[in-house]
Design goal:
- This protein is 71% helix and 0% strand.
- It is mainly α and 200 residues long.
- It is globular, with a radius of gyration of 17 Å.
């Protein structure tokens, strides 16, 4: 019973469509009807600007963190589910949100939030990697995949040092999903038509 409840909570947390709600409440704009049509932070930056983009990024990160930390709540003290499984569920909720007709974002920020809740040093490494790569490339999609690759390499090394197989499995899963969700972006990068950010 508790296992099912905590999984449902993780999914619902991940399903919170930050970009959609911020756009509709404060800007009277449905960002699904503009730009890439994506509900993630990148399209929010593009359509609504820096302030909204930053708020949505933070909210999306915290969704992943909150899902991982559910196991620390007293009400769920007896659950037998690994916290990283809840992180994966939250990521799936972000990509297929029940509150937005199952049309969500690409899960980069929420995936980062999962790592923040589980191993903050990796989050810091990815934070630095992301902004350095973005500064150099100006392409968010490419930067996201670079950060995901760095996370995968870190997880593999971390496994050989600590034996933490759960983190390796999670990061491999997230890396695969992030690359899959960016397959259209990969084509545009190859063709030289992928949009570049103008605010950095």
């Amino acid at each position: 019973m508790l296992n099912g409840l905590i999984i449902l909570c993780a999914y619902l947390i991940g399903s919170i469509p930050s970009g959609l709600w911020i756009g509709k409440i404060f800007y009277k704009t449905d960002i699904r009807e503009h730009g890439s049509g994506n509900l993630g932070a990148t399209n929010t930056f593009r359509i609504l600007g820096k302030k909204a983009g930053l708020v949505v990024t933070i909210m999306d990160v915290l969704k992943g963190t909150a899902a991982v930390l559910l196991v620390t709540l007293p009400v769920f003290s007896e659950v037998s589910i690994h916290s990283l499984i809840l992180g994966i569920v939250a990521v799936l909720g972000h990509m297929f949100p029940v509150f937005a007709s199952f049309r969500g974002g690409k899960a980069v920020a929420t995936s980062a939030g999962v790592l923040l809740g589980y191993t903050w040093p990796l989050f810091i490494l990815l934070f630095i990697t992301f902004f350095l790569a973005l500064k150099l490339t100006k392409i968010v999609s490419l930067t996201s995949m670079i950060a995901a690759l760095v996370a995968l390499i870190y997880a593999i090394v971390y496994y050989f040092v600590t034996g933490d197989v759960a983190l390796s499995i999670l990061v491999a899963f997230l890396f695969s999903f992030i690359v899959y969700r960016h397959r259209a972006n990969i084509s545009r990068i190859k063709n030289g038509t992928e949009p570049k950010v103008k605010w950095l």
